[in-house]
Amino acid sequence: LSFLLFVAGELLLLSSVILLFRVVCGCPARCHCHSSSRSVDCSRQGLAEIPPDLPPHTLTLHLQDNQIHQLPAFAFRSVPHLRTLNLYNNSLSNLAPGVFHGLQHLQVLNLTQNSLHSLESRLFHSLPQLRELDLSSNNISHLPISLGKPWENLTVFAVQQNRLQQLDRELLESMPSVRLLFLKDNLWKCNCHMLSLKLWLEKFIYKGGIMDSVTCVSPHTWKGKDLLKIPHELYQPCSLPSAGTGTSRVQQPDPGSPESHGLGQRDRSECELKPKPRPINLRHAVATVVITGVVCGIVCLMMLVAAIYGCTYAAVTAQHKAGRLAQTEETVKLEGKEPDDSSPA
Ligand SMILES: *[C@@H]1O[C@H](CO)[C@@H](O)[C@H](O)[C@H]1NC(C)=O
Ligand SMILES: *[C@@H]1O[C@H](CO)[C@@H](O)[C@H](O)[C@H]1NC(C)=O
Ligand SMILES: *[C@@H]1O[C@H](CO)[C@@H](O)[C@H](O)[C@H]1NC(C)=O
Ligand SMILES: *[C@@H]1O[C@H](CO)[C@@H](O)[C@H](O)[C@H]1NC(C)=O
């Protein structure tokens, strides 16, 4: 019995030593800490929240393949030097404002394969040094005009495999250094509001940017078409994006309220692309009427002139003929008289 007690005591001591060791070294249970690279790997641990006691000098934090579904504000306050944060394949459905506060040095943020459906405006304002932002494979249907302060160094922006119908040019303009764009597999609605995106993307590619594709899902006319291959002429009924008016107006209402959604929808449907713009047809019609009128007028005038000429000619001829007839009659009479005259002779 005393031996067993001794063993138990030893085990207790050992485990407390291990615990002490962990606290001193600052590596949370269920994570692996690599001191040389200052990275902490907590992936595939079935975590529901961020482990406490992360080493304060951590540069890379792997939290992928867990079940984290919520993050509090200032969630990463204890690791202010973080450069890379990987939250791939978790269960995040929304992100509270201020989640990323304090991550002044973060360069890579991977939020791929979560269940995000919308993002707060200015959510990433506290990440001025961001270089790569991956939001792909979520359920995002709307992105605000502003996500971060102008991101001087952001080069990769990925939103493929979401439910986006449109993307504001202003958002892309806040990433002056972006070189890689992933946009495919969304619900792109290719109406007038996409014209400014189309123009922006054309310029982006011209300047050497690399992107996948924007395939239209609606309206029916453009289903399956690549936005960049729709000719400009077909955007004629759309007003050109002068200083972003109109586009931004539709986007501003709070995405949460169903009323604003309805308004946006109505605004958008009023602005559908027309394969055959009406103004041209109208102009054609007016031109046709004018030309027809002129031609008709000329023809009528000519007919009138012809008629007058005809009548005059006929009258003159008739008069002349009448004169000659009378003359002939006289001649005939005279000639008729002649035999009378000559008979006695
Ligand atoms: C996502 O993480 C879960 C564990 O939470 C894992 O079982 C699954 O294989 C991962 N999926 C992918 C695509 O890596
Ligand atoms: C962008 O990167 C450069 C070079 O690494 C750095 O000097 C600069 O501070 C960064 N800009 C911001 C806004 O962090
Ligand atoms: C995010 O993680 C996924 C899965 O590991 C990877 O395919 C993707 O390239 C990562 N994104 C970035 C920007 O590093
Ligand atoms: C994505 O959102 C749609 C509605 O917008 C919802 O029906 C669907 O269940 C969501 N999917 C996931 C994986 O959250």
Mean pLDDT: 78
Q: Give me the secondary-structure category.
A: alpha/beta
What is the CATH domain class of one domain?
Alpha Beta
Total E-strand runs: 9
CATH topology of one domain: Leucine-rich repeat, LRR (right-handed beta-alpha superhelix)
Characteristics of this structure?
345 residues, alpha/beta, Leucine-rich repeat, LRR (right-handed beta-alpha superhelix), rod-shaped, disordered C terminus, binds 2-acetamido-2-deoxy-beta-D-glucopyranose
Q: Could you walk me through the main structural features you see in this protein, from its secondary elements to its overall organization?
A:
The chain starts with a helix and ends with a helix. The protein is an alpha/beta fold and 345 residues long. It has helices at residues 2-25, 169-173, 195-206, 247-251, 258-269, 278-342, and strands at residues 32-34, 39-41, 60-62, 84-86, 108-110, 132-134, 156-158, 180-182, 210-211. It contains six helices and nine strands. 36% of the residues lie in helices and 8% in strands. It is rod-shaped and about 130 Å long. Among the domains are: 22-186, Leucine-rich repeat, LRR (right-handed beta-alpha superhelix) (Alpha-Beta Horseshoe); 281-328. A nine-stranded mixed beta sheet has the order 1-2-3-4-5-6-7-8-9, with no helix packed on it. The structure holds 2-acetamido-2-deoxy-beta-D-glucopyranose (4 copies). One 2-acetamido-2-deoxy-beta-D-glucopyranose binds at residues 65-67, 89. Its main location: membrane. Belongs to the SLITRK family. Residues 264-275 have a biased composition (Basic and acidic residues). One of its GO terms (biological process) is positive regulation of synapse assembly.
